[in-house]
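Dear colleagues,

For the upcoming journal club I promised to circulate an example of a predicted protein-ligand complex. I picked one with molybdenum atom because it came up in last month's discussion. The inputs are reproduced below in full, followed by the predicted structure.
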Amino acid sequence: MTNSFGDMQNAKSVFIIGCNPAVNHPVGFSHILKAKERNNAKIIVIDPRFTKSAAKADYFAQIRPGTDIPFVYGMLHLIFKNGWEDKKYIEDRVYGMDEIKAEAAKWTPELVEDVTGVPKETLIEITTVYAQNAPGTLLWAMGLTQHTVGTGNTRIAPILQMALGYMGKAGGGTNILRGHDNVQGATDMGCLSDTLPGYYGLAEGAWKYYARMWGVEHEYLVSQFKDASWMGKPGFTLARWWAGVLAGNPGEDAIENAGTNLKALVVMGCGITSTSQNLKIQEGLDALDLVVLADPFVNEAAVITNRKDNLFILPSATQFENSGTVSATNRSAQWRYQVVEPLHESKQDQEIMFELAKRLGFYEPYTRSMMMRLKEDGYLEFTPGKTSFQWPEDATVEISRTLRTIGLMGWTPERIKKHTDNWHLFDEVTGEGTGPMKGEYYGLPWPCWSTKHGGTPNLYSVDVSTRQGGMGFRNNFGLEKDGVSLLAGKGSAPVGSRVDGGYPEITKENIESLIGRPLSEAEKELCGQNWKTCTSGKLIDLALEAGLTPYGNAKARAVVWTFPDKIPMHREPLYSPRPDLVAKYPTYEDKANHFRVTTKYASIQKEKDHVMEFPIVMTTGRLVTMMGAGLENRASKYLCALTPEMFCDIHPDLASKHGIKNGAMMWVHSPAGTKIKVKAKYSHTVMPGMVFLPFHFGGFMQGVDMTGNFPMGTKPYASGECANTVVAYGYDIITQIPASKAGLCRVEKA
Ligand SMILES: Nc1nc2c(c(=O)[nH]1)N[C@H]1C(S)=C(S)[C@@H](COP(=O)(O)OP(=O)(O)OC[C@H]3O[C@@H](n4cnc5c(=O)[nH]c(N)nc54)[C@H](O)[C@@H]3O)O[C@H]1N2
Ligand SMILES: Nc1nc2c(c(=O)[nH]1)N[C@H]1C(S)=C(S)[C@@H](COP(=O)(O)OP(=O)(O)OC[C@H]3O[C@@H](n4cnc5c(=O)[nH]c(N)nc54)[C@H](O)[C@@H]3O)O[C@H]1N2
Ligand SMILES: [Mo]
């Protein structure tokens, strides 16, 4: 999220594409309603369903799932045609907009109507309103990401903001509504298989930096791998771990995993039914040598598997029985205080991990750096006299001294606690503190460059100084491309910047020329190679003194030359209802070794015209009463009274065509050959050609009730078929997120 929920109150228009905040972020949604009250902000919703958010909108486009790229190109077509783009902003701050303009020229309102199903009058009306009510904030979440073109979707949305000059403005920005409590923090801490914590890449230099910051030898880290080459390779993802188990079986995708299949699975805080192709997950669970489930509830992995042994359920403590920092969707930190001691036999997650590390023999190096402190010269030493570490404070200190890329240097435990304790002293809209908290923004939203910096409420704003959170775009992709400079244009820099325009990221080599004075020998001693690895913090301090942003001041790039689609391109879903459009906008070629697994694209789309047998578009998503895989909520009697069973939203016209009565049972069949039996719920939120399934239920598999497998007394108050049993093959080309928003199905009376 570039801005924050509070900042949305500054918006004059709110563009909601691929999320349903009235249901999934109801507290956050109140800021949008306030924008309407304060500024008469225009609310625009683009969604295949008439959602509760759409019910509050001024303009609504009911789009066919998976066609957001054409829709936004249609908007850009009109913006460029009418000269509504922010020319100066584009000139100074964007690389490659000409290529976008050329693609947008193809997407006439008529073509957009044909591909997306949105009447061209609606497209024109929405574009006009959005371009003329500046600034506009743009929101998305899973409606954009869970597609084979998810990454393209998440690129075209900021490009729209850039074209209109809405990025880096209060009341503007791209505001991606994060999901779980602390999901922003989890990503920042490195719960991804292709980065180290803080998004440091898997390069040797980054590993060496981490070795230093963990207080271990680089060779020790290397010795944990089959050979050093595996340190540079992304691992499996949550979406496809089971492919690592099943590889070698007939029909399964090939893997590249150092010559071995996966043998053991440890699940910590993930409901197993939340990933697509649930039948494959069941097969994967059955085939493993060992399954360990650490969860406050009985994870349904234990219930849907047919295995009889080597399955362990470890009772994890909940957030109320633990403490530490959590990061909110706007990159701000909060201290979470423990409320009660872990109940009964449950253990906090870190205790489980410490015990595991002890048994496997690496507890000491695992926890070593919490016993160390950073010296002024940027090197670690054992803290004199320290015989044990204090959890979670010492871990927080380690994080703040290590995760420099995103600017966590100012996140000391003392500061974060002080913010949480004084939350009432901060402004709801700007995040600015008053009284003793003056000069700081609530939760020190990152980047928070140093212990003196107050955090960054809105990313990429040059309207304020670097001290107040101003910055250009990150210089991350070199200084020029094909002879064109990638640095920001002259005149575009945060207020008070010594350099009036673009500059590269700060290094030992360029610091003197950028700040305009020679460094003393003592100062030079303290400088690391570049700001990211300069652990003394000297380079950052020098940059801030000159009003410079440590990571440089560059152009945002609309063209990503390393991706298969250099600019976002429309590609039909693997299971498309429009074979005529598949011919025109085919998907990607199959991709070998995509997070270690060969991943099919064209070969599925070309198999046959799936729509002949599976003529109904199927999408999945959320209910306000349930969360994720639903284990927590289905343990609540009261929530279960509101949504007691699994259902399918179906338009009465479609249902009656199949003889399905409201409240009767129906089958939903997927092209993967799987099926679920659910209750029909007549609804006008979906069009007659489409159904919607919530994904919060589990415990049943293709009509079979498996809830008898719950240990006594642990069965949830509600169980049911899992939508992901009928979410078929399909993964994003870059991130591998399952394509659970645009599928096909067939329905039948049960
Ligand atoms: N009550 C509740 N709140 C939650 C959660 C929960 O489970 N329950 N989960 C949390 C989590 S983890 C997350 S990630 C967020 C997710 O928040 P959202 O992304 O808002 O959640 P979804 O309901 O999955 O999907 C949002 C909307 O995308 C629409 N959509 C589907 N396909 C397309 C498409 O191709 N284009 C467009 N434009 N729209 C499409 C769907 O109809 C749906 O209304 O919510 C968080 N908040
Ligand atoms: N079809 C379809 N599938 C989807 C989606 C969709 O839109 N459609 N959305 C996807 C998205 S965005 C997400 S984020 C996932 C969400 O899916 P999950 O990540 O599976 O979501 P939760 O149900 O919140 O799972 C959290 C699990 O952690 C446990 N837990 C809670 N607190 C703790 C703790 O402190 N420690 C430990 N160890 N465990 C704890 C809970 O009991 C629960 O079992 O679903 C994905 N799946
Ligand atoms: Mo999520």
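Two points we might discuss: Residues 17-20, 23-24, 46-49, 51, 63, 65-66, 68, 141-143, 177, 179-180, 619, 621-622, 624, 626-628, 741-742 surround MGD (ligand 1) (CB under 6 Å). The chain has a mean pLDDT of 97.

See you all on Thursday,
B. R.
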